[in-house]
């Protein structure tokens, strides 16, 4: 295969089919494509096959897909298969050689699944591996889903907190606003800060990358400066040294006690989430305070987090939801489907043929199987 050749680029047979599979992971309610985007893809000569019930969790009945021009059937036999969460090895084995698979594939941790894709002759594109560059912003599924998660985390915190978020002035007196601290100011963190501010809380953000302070202030929040910097590459923070981590935790422990709500979002790709909220910090929080740990899937940012559970420690509630975007499947699916459609339009030409150009940094960066030099 040449550098710019697609696995099936020379085919001149029937139009390529795009398969939209039904997610089977417990609690996953999103779908990889929504009816409103089917016509856009059909203009490229593509045919859409939707697995029966694929959109039910996102309140999209099969009839809405068929009315938009799709058919229902075996989505796993399509030429291009779209998924939300990583498929199992058994599902990967259902794919025919030459299939293009697109979705969240967790290539840094799902080594067995990536190996199965290679063995099956599948060309796989992991949306979380798309380079975070300007021209790929419309394909950035990590950001679109992080926006949903950040918003949802604040609603969860507000529900758990036994206080008002906003300041209220009533005949019975004035209620001060809740104080909310967001640790980790990426896309999810910024959305959490903006949402907390909209709900009337006094919002404060902290990140080891000092350059994001201006972004925090841009959404009306305050900046918590602890004097520690861990600016890294690709928009992520680098891992702190042991000395830096100890100093950070000491200062955070002192600061956290002054907040009613703490929302943590700090992640390092492919590694355990850094501990930001120690057991000591939890003990120093006021009774009724709430921690929402958004990093539970990789161990959590709070030392006492139990992934997927709500626990109470010393009158402090620690909540660790594992898939917040799936709790808002309607808009999460719409945003994700737009991300995938943009990527599809990059690898499919105007006549509905695969045109995978591995010299394109977006295509090469996202490819995790099907091209030997892209697979670790």
TrEMBL record:
Q: Which UniProt keywords apply?
A: NAD, NADP, Nucleotide-binding, Oxidoreductase, Translocase
MF terms in GO: NADP binding; oxidoreductase activity; proton-translocating NAD(P)+ transhydrogenase activity
Q: Which GO terms describe its cellular component?
A: plasma membrane
Q: What InterPro entries does UniProt report for this protein, alphabetically?
A: AlaDH/PNT_N (IPR007886), AlaDH/PNT_NAD(H)-bd (IPR007698), NAD(P)-bd_dom_sf (IPR036291)
> What positions does the domain Alanine dehydrogenase/pyridine nucleotide transhydrogenase N-terminal occupy?
19-149
Q: Which SMART domains match?
A: AlaDh_PNT_C, AlaDh_PNT_N
Locations of Polar residues compositional bias?
A: 1-14
Catalysed reaction equations from the record:
NAD(+) + NADPH + H(+)(in) = NADH + NADP(+) + H(+)(out)
According to its UniProt record, the EC number is 7.1.1.1
Q: Where is this region: Disordered?
A: 1-20
Q: Name one Pfam family in it.
A: AlaDh_PNT_C
Signal peptide per UniProt = none
Q: Which residues form the Alanine dehydrogenase/pyridine nucleotide transhydrogenase NAD(H)-binding domain?
A: 158-320
According to its UniProt entry, one GO biological process term is: NADPH regeneration
> Cross-referenced NCBIfam families, in alphabetical order?
PRK09424.1
Q: Which PANTHER family does the protein's record reference?
A: NAD(P) TRANSHYDROGENASE, PROTON-TRANSLOCATING NAD(P)(+) TRANSHYDROGENASE
User: What does this protein's UniProt record list under function?
Assistant: The transhydrogenation between NADH and NADP is coupled to respiration and ATP hydrolysis and functions as a proton pump across the membrane.
Q: What is this protein called?
A: NAD(P) transhydrogenase subunit alpha part 1
């Amino acid at each position: 295969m040449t550098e710019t050749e697609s696995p099936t680029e020379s085919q001149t047979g029937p139009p390529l089919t795009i398969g939209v599979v039904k997610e089977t992971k417990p609690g996953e309610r999103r779908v990889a494509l929504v009816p409103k985007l089917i016509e856009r893809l059909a203009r490229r000569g593509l045919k859409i096959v939707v697995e029966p019930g694929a959109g039910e969790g996102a309140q999209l009945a099969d009839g809405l897909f068929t009315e938009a021009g799709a058919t229902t059937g075996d989505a796993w036999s399509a030429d291009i298969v779209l998924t939300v969460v990583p498929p199992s090895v058994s599902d990967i084995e259902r794919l025919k050689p030459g299939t293009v698979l697109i979705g969240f594939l967790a290539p840094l941790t799902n080594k067995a699944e990536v190996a199965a894709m290679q063995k099956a002759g599948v060309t796989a594109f992991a949306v979380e591996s798309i380079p975070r560059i300007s021209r790929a912003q419309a394909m950035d599924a990590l950001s679109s889903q992080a926006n949903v998660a950040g918003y949802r985390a604040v609603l969860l915190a507000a529900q758990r907190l036994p206080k008002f978020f906003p300041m209220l002035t009533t005949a019975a007196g004035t209620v001060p606003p809740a104080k909310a601290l967001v640790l980790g100011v990426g896309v999810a963190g910024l959305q959490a800060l903006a949402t907390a501010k909209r709900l009337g809380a006094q919002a404060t953000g902290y990140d080891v990358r000092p350059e994001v302070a201006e972004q925090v202030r841009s959404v009306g929040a305050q900046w918590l400066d602890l004097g520690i910097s861990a600016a890294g590459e690709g928009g992520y923070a680098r891992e702190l040294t042991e000395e830096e981590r100890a100093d950070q935790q000491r200062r955070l422990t002192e600061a956290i006690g002054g907040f009613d709500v703490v929302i943590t979002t700090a992640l390092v790709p492919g590694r355990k989430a850094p501990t930001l909220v120690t057991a000591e910090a939890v003990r120093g929080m006021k009774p009724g305070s709430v921690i929402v740990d958004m990093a539970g899937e990789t161990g959590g940012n709070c030392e006492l987090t139990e992934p997927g559970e709500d626990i109470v420690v010393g009158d402090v509630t620690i909540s660790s939801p594992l898939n917040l975007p799936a709790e808002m499947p309607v808009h999460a699916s719409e945003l994700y489907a737009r991300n995938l459609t943009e990527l599809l339009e990059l690898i499919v030409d105007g006549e509905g043929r695969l045109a995978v150009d591995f010299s394109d940094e977006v295509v090469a960066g996202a490819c995790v199987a099907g091209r030997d030099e892209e697979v670790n």
